[in-house]
């Protein structure tokens, strides 16, 4: 039983460390005067309980506590960094990993992280 419990703890820790990068913007006292909207960092307001994507490849949600935003672009981690490099496509928030010598050839990626 102790072995099973230990294995579950290691797995839970691993899963937590691999979760998406997120941050939280708490509702400010000054924002309480407009209880039906959330104000994002760029000054744009969004309706309460709404969801949107930012130009920074983040998905944000708004509720009465504030705004939570998480990265949506999966980042390549496990690839041949000597022979290959990553190219980021901002228009659709994706990466492609290609060979340095021939950008038409994709490289294998073992691990992606959100």
Automatic annotation (TrEMBL):
It is found in: Secreted. Transmembrane segments: none annotated. It holds the Pfam family PSP94. GO terms for cellular component: extracellular region. It comes from the Eukaryota. Residues 1-20 form the signal peptide. The keyword Flavoprotein does not apply. The keyword Isomerase does not apply. Gene3D superfamilies: 2.20.25.590, Complement Module, domain 1. Keywords: Disulfide bond, Secreted, Signal. Its main location: secreted. Belongs to the beta-microseminoprotein family. This is Beta-microseminoprotein.
């Amino acid at each position: 039983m102790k072995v099973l419990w230990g294995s579950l703890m290691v797995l839970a820790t691993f899963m937590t460390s691999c979760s998406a990068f997120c941050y939280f913007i708490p509702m400010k006292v000054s924002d309480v005067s407009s209880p039906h909207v959330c104000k994002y960092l760029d000054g744009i307001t969004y309706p309460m309980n709404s969801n949107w994507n930012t130009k920074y490849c983040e998905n944000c949600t708004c509720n009465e506590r504030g705004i939570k935003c998480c990265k949506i672009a999966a980042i390549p981690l496990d690839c041949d960094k000597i022979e290959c490099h990553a190219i980021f496509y901002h228009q659709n928030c994706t990466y492609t990993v290609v060979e340095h010598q021939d950008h038409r050839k994709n490289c294998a990626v073992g691990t992606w992280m959100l």
